[in-house]
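Hey, can you fold this one?
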Amino acid sequence: MSLAGRFGVGLVALVLVAAAWTINDRVFWIRWFSQPPGDAVLLNWEWYQPVDVIKDGPSPPLPVAGQMDLTIGKHALAQAQAYAEEFDSLAFLVARNGALQLEHYGEGQDRETVIDSQSMHKGLLGVVVTVALDQGFIPSLGMPVSTYIPEWGSDKRRDITVGHLLKMTSGLAQVEYGTSAFTPGQRLFFGDDLDGPVRDIPLAFEPGTAFDFNHVNSQALHAVLTGSTGLSYAKFVREYLWDPIGAGFAQVRLDREGGAARIFCCVQTRPMDWMRLGVMLANGGQVDGAQVISEKWVDRLMSGSERNPNFGLHVWLGSPYSGSRLLSEPKDRRAPISAEFLADDVMYVEGRGGQRLYVVPSAGLVAYRAGRIDFAWDDAKIINILLGGIRPNAAVTEQQDG
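Sure. Predicted structure:
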C-alpha cells in the first residue's frame, strides 16, 4: 500500500475512534459545547441538565431600613455602590442587624434575578456540613471519610477525616485543570460521573500536613453528607437549612439523573437568599429566635486551622492579616490582600472573580456581590468602606451623614 493509502486508512481509523469516544461521552460534549461563555454563565444558568431543585418559590426580602434608620452612612453606601458598579455588578446588597441598608441591581436585574454562584457553593457547602455536624448526623470532624467512601479504607486515604476535607488539608491530588476539553478537570465540571473521580483520586501528600485548595475535597463531602444523613443533598439542604432560614428558590446540578450533586461549584439562587444565610450566621446561627446552627458550631465554621489561619470550614477569614492569603502550600501559591480589614471577624464565601458573601458578626454586617468575573475585585476595599461608614448611633440623619 502506498504512503498516501496508509495515511488515508490511518486517518479513517482515527476519525472512527474519535467518533466512538465522542458518542460514548455524549453528555460531556453536549454540556461542553452548550456552556455560556465568560460572564454570561452567571445569568444563563438554564443550559445545564439535569438539576435537583432544593426549593421552589419566592425569596422573601429582608426588612428595609428607612432613611432615618440607616446605621451605615449614606456616603459610605454610595461609595460602596459606586465600587460595585465599577465592576458591572449584577447585584450588590448590604444589611446591618438584619435590615437592608442598600439594595442595588444592574440594568435589567431585580429581586427575582437568579444568579449562578460559581465556587460560592463551596462556602454554602461548608455551612451545610456544619449543620450536619451540629445535628449529629456526622459524629465529629475526626470521622474517617472511608466510612462513607469504602474504597479509601484500603490505603493511606483511610487517614483522611471529614475535618481534613473541610479544611482543605486532605492531601488528595489535584485534578489537572485547563481550558482544553481533554483535561481531567473538565470532566469534573461537565462529566456524568462524579463518584468515580473522587473514588479513584490518589494521595499527593500525608493528610493534615499542608493546605491545598482543591475541588475534590469539596466533592468528596457529597458522599459524607448523603451517607451520614440518608438524604439527597438537595433534600438535606432544604429541610435543615433553606427552610429554617426562610429562603426561596435554589437548585443544584446533578452529574446524571438520580446521580450525585455537583457541590464544589454552581448553585443557582437569588441574592436575597444569600443575604438570609449571611444574616443567620451574623446572628450567631439564629433566625427569629430559633437556633438553626448552634453558636459553638458557627464559631467552629469561622475558626482558622493550624495549616491556614485564614480558612475555616470551607469559608475564608480576614484575620490574621499578612498581606496575602494562602491558596496552596505544596505549590507556594498565595493571593494578595490589599489591606488589613477593619474588623477581626470578617468571614467571606468566595466565588470566581468577585462573587462574594461577606459576614462580620461583630458589626452585624452582611454584604453580597455578584457580577462581572474580575479577579481585581478587592475584598478589603469594599468591606472597609462599609465598616468605616458604620455610625455609633442607631439612626443616621442627613446632617450626620453630610
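The chain has a mean pLDDT of 92. Let me know if you want another pass with a different chain boundary.
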